[in-house]
Amino acid sequence: FLVMQVVRAPAVSGPLRSWIGGRYHNSVAAAARVFFDDINPATGKPICQVEEASTADVDSAVMAAKTALPKWASMKGAERGRILNRAAQLLRERNDELAALEVLDTGKPIQEASVVDIVSGAECIEYYAGVAATLHGDHYQLGGDTWAYTIREPLGVCGQIGAWNYPIQIACWKSAPALACGNTVVYKPSELTPITSLKLAEIYKEAGVPDGVFNVILGRGEVGSHLVSHPDVAKVSLTGSVPTGKRVMNAASSTLKHVTLELGGKSPLIVFDDAKIENAVSAALLANFYTQGEICSNGTRVFVASAIYDDFLEVLKSRTNKLIVGDPQDPATQVGALITKQHMEKVLGFIESGKREARLVCGGRQVSELGDGYFVAPTIFADCNDDCTIVREEIFGPVMSVLKFDSEQEVIERANNTPYGLAAGVFTQNLQRGHRMARSLQAGTVWLNNYNLTPIEVPFGGYKQSGIGRENSLVTVEHYTQLKT
After folding, report:
1. What is the DSSP letter of 164?
2. What is residue 449's DSSP assignment?
3. Residues 416-462 pLDDT 10s
4. Are 384 and 402 in contact (CB under 8 A)?
5. Is 296 a known active-site residue?
């Protein structure tokens, strides 16, 4: 028999403090310090206290990054790469400890975090460790004895703001390309999930990243606002909501900073009548209930061809009812806790709206028998229409809307009828149709007969209001360097 044991995270001693200049930073005079609680979503109880960075702390972090820039930028790319490779190795060695901390902070199941969150972060750092030594300019022969050349140089200090659903993965996705290209970083994790970004800072230092090259500032919205508007920050990268992205872009415009925004979505997952139903249902479950639905690229509008609509719903309902909602630290758990009580109440509000507008297939309630944690049952609504609130709005929770369609052109028009454009999925055995759909859908990423795979080698980002710029792949070199002719 296979015996699965509940994984307990190591104790977290607080208060957590910002990491500036290669060490934990003692903030202003004790009387002026501000603290807030970091809450475990699975219990509703505090994990530890967090000390909020002051305006002076943000200034200190930017100054530390600015001071460290010349040495780091002038280092050979191969040397930066060796340091980053060592950091990736340390991440892998500490996978279990870091995964347990991520579960404590986010409420996601350990069966996800142990095989995805830290591993994907390490893969990202390894990828850009290899890229660092390949950075180069170009030579232009202009005729006769005349020629020109370009030099690719770092932008400078990069202000980066992470999200709470994949804290360490996003910290790696943002910091690795920036550091590989010779920039320095001031990183602000979400105030809801600060723990593992600090662990990443410790790992970078142990790997050989010089003091001041990677800094972490802790705090809520005002801390991020000061970072974004700081005149010595050359680049801002945000993963967050569309309203937050608009505010960041507006603040960054005052000094014309370079901006990358990875924002929200309301992505379509389209299932044609020739699709393999079990495979399409697996994708729908992954695209709605993985990480309890708190993924920006989720395919929450599931369009199903009329001919297989009832069969699809029958299989979908059966498999959804078997999902295990429970203690995120239990390896058997498949659906964990939502990030905060406020967010859970927001999701439950959308569910009540869905009950008025569509047909509830399963779920539709808070799982209150699990105690004071923020658990919501995986929820499916059928017979939805395009005007339903749950179809139009990004819910960011375990809520799926299933819609019926009759023709290819119809579903293209309906799928594209949204201000978002982050991702899309198509399930069909007709490859011609699959590639035709991929060209027609207005989305930054389109999956064929799969969903939510984001290998580091390929670009990820959105169309329309789902973002600006791309993360991952070689494309990010353009976002973290500038050309001198």
Report:
1. S
2. S
3. 999 999 999 999 999 999 999 999 999 999 999 999 999 999 999 99
4. yes
5. yes
393 flagged as catalytic:
no
* CA pair distance 92, 88, nearest whole angstrom: 6
With both helix axes pointing from N to C terminus, report the angle between 277-289 and 309-320 in degrees, rounded to the nearest 10: 50
- Coil, helix or strand for 145? coil
Q: Which helix (H) or strand (E) holds 476?
A: helix 476-479
Q: Give tens-digit pLDDT for 214-248.
A: 999 999 999 999 999 999 999 999 999 999 999 99
Check: CB of residue 294 under 8 Å from CB of residue 241.
Answer: no
Q: What single DSSP character describes residue 266?
A: -
Average of per-residue pLDDT across 155-177: 98
Cα–Cα distances in Å, from 196 out to 9, 178, 199, 202? 12, 19, 5, 10
Task: Please provide the DSSP assignment of 172-237 as one string.
Answer: HHHHHHHHHTT-EEEEE--TTS-HHHHHHHHHHHHHTPPTTSEEE---SHHHHHHHHH-TT--EEE
CB neighbours of residue 272 within 10 Å: 22
Closest CA to 89 of 123, 48, 117: 123
Q: Is 36 exposed, middle or buried (0-12, 13-18, 19+ CB in 10 A)?
A: middle
Can you read off the two tokens belonging to residue 280? 């399409």
Of the candidates 51, 102, 123, 262, the residue annotated as catalytic is: 262
Task: Mark whether 362 is an active-site residue.
Answer: no
CA 283, 320, 461, 84 dihedral sign is negative
Closest CA to 190 of 350, 41, 67, 299: 41
- Mapped onto helix, strand or coil, the DSSP state of residue 169 is helix
Count CB-CB contacts under 10 A for residue 88: 22
Q: Active site residue: 174, 188, 257, 266, which one?
A: 174
- Give the count of beta carbons closer than 10 Å to the beta carbon of residue 40: 24
408 is catalytic: no
Which of these is catalytic: 48, 124, 296, 388? 296
